[in-house]
């Protein structure tokens, strides 16, 4: 199951560099994870300063 970014995202930009498959992109009001590309590695979650990334 792909990770998701919830509405507490502050668009800080910390998560995209951590993604090994480049599935995180900037959306209109928060970052989003492409569920078709996400490999469920969890590398993005620990770097989020507001815990907006969940499995």
Largest sheet: 2 strands, antiparallel
For the secondary structure, the number of strands is 4
What is the straight-line distance between the termini? 7 Å
Low-confidence stretches: none
| Structural category | mainly beta
Overall pLDDT confidence:
98
Hey, roughly how much beta strand do the residues contain? 15-25%
Percent helix range: under 10%
| Lateral strand order in the biggest sheet | 1-4
Q: What general form does the structure show?
A: globular
N to C succession of SSEs: EEEE
Radius of gyration: 10 Å
Please tally the helical runs, counting DSSP H or I stretches of 4 or more residues: 0
List the helices and strands and how they pair.
Layout: E1 4-5, E2 24-26, E3 31-33, E4 53-54
Give a written overview of the molecule.
The structure is a single chain. A hairpin with a 4-residue loop joins strand 2 and strand 3 (31-33). This protein is 0% helix and 18% strand. It is an all-beta fold. The protein is globular. The strands form 2 sheets. Strands 1-4 form a two-stranded antiparallel ribbon. The protein has a two-stranded antiparallel sheet with strand order 2-3. The chain starts with a strand and ends with a strand. The chain contains no helices and 4 strands.
């Amino acid at each position: 199951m792909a990770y998701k970014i919830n509405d507490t995202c502050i668009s800080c930009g910390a998560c995209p560099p951590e993604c090994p498959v480049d599935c995180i992109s900037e959306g209109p009001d928060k970052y989003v994870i492409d569920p078709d590309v996400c490999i469920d590695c969890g590398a993005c979650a620990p770097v989020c300063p507001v815990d907006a990334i969940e499995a």
